[in-house]
Design goal:
Mean pLDDT: 83
Helix content: 40-55%
Largest sheet: 3 strands, mixed
Length: 125
């Protein structure tokens, strides 16, 4: 297992930055308008809202209106789109630093897919 001690919060943040930098240019451009938040674990209220019993299952979360649902007439005061990446669950499922790099990339791509309006069953990952 890739133990948390082996990948610090700072190193994990660099992996997320690298995953974003490795995105193809059109997707990297989309990321410019999305806040990326790194958290150790998914918050309890998020797990409850998503009916997630096992916190290890949730690696990331997109919050915001998808581009597919975006409208000129959207209400003011709306929060900007945000992707949360959860370090603990990702490190628990990966067995090597290389797997962590791939899982971070896949999670960023998956959550970006929600931003463009894809459902889970339409995702490339």
């Amino acid at each position: 297992m890739a133990k948390r001690e082996h990948i610090s919060s700072e190193a994990f943040a660099k992996l997320v930055q690298q995953a974003i930098a490795d995105l193809p240019p059109p997707y990297a451009k989309l990321m410019e308008s999305i806040a990326v938040i790194l958290e150790e674990e998914p918050p309890e209220d998020v797990l409850r809202d998503l009916d997630q019993e096992d916190e290890g299952e949730l690696l990331g979360l997109y919050q915001g209106q998808s581009l597919a649902a975006d409208s000129f007439f959207r209400p003011g005061g709306e929060q900007p789109p945000q992707i949360s990446i959860y370090r603990g669950p990702i490190l628990r499922i990966c067995e090597s630093p290389e797997e962590v790099v791939q899982e971070v990339y896949d999670t960023v791509v998956h959550e970006l897919g929600h931003h463009v309006g894809l459902d889970d069953d339409e995702m490339p990952y």
